[in-house]
Amino acid sequence: MKKLLLISMTCFLLVIASACGNGNGAFKDKKTITIGMNNYTENIAYTYVWKHILEDRGYKVRTVFLEKAGVWVGTANDDIDISFAPWLPTTDAPFYKKYKDQVNIEDPWLKNARLGFAVPSYMKDVNTTEDLAKVASDVDNKVIGIDPGSSINGLAEQALKDYNLKSYTLVKSSEAAMLSELRKAYDAKKPIVVTMWNPHWAFADFDIKYLKDPKNSFGDPDNIYTMTSKEFKKTNPQVIKWMNNAQMNDKLISPLLSQVEKSSNPEEAAQEWVKKHKKLIDSWTKE
What we know:
This protein is of the alpha/beta class. The protein has helices at 2-22, 41-56, 68-76, 93-99, 151-162, 175-187, 202-205, 230-235, 237-245, 250-262, 266-276, 278-284; strands spanning 32-37, 60-65, 82-83, 87-88, 103-120, 142-144, 169-171, 194-198, 208-210, 222-229.
């Protein structure tokens, strides 16, 4: 994941450098599109789906890996044309509040996305967030989180305060590290608490459950939106129309996430999904 982050930062710097060299937004050519993506599986999968859709229609597409904050900043600065990363109204609320006047939030591409604390289902006596107080020592007083800059970490920290779980520490790592810890604990049938969200392939590979959140610390379910830069909105109405036609649901996205996660080449896995769903793609991109 560190390697991925390094690549992400390098790519972002290249984007900035190229844009500066042009002096007027190097990637604003009608047929060249830059998509900002983070390292969450659903975002990687959907970004590569649209990369192939657009390339099949004559566009040149650049993908740039960034952390969530970088995606918002890059789009606000017109260095990124499109991103499928915003979770609203709850998860990315701080980013939206800061950048709402500098970006365009288009239609949601997936509705009712949820996030919260999750534990293996074999932790039968742990069903609500309050129950974590009973098992603090069993899990070494840790909740395994993901990237330090992620929105879900902020919500998780707030949840620990809301439920007075003072002995707990949120371990900030990465999605890959969190899943690695989950797999080790799960295989050994040991207790563990992680931050989780759906859609996510982990719900297919592990028998895990969300903890009830009666204080609604993680908020109501989000929708995941397409976000574009102000400049892109002006110059590419056709692409935006196509993307606003696109709707995913759990039935459609679960096989895609599984294919992407298990493949050594996520981009090729997404391309296979696009080939299998030609009729659906054509309905999104009809003139």
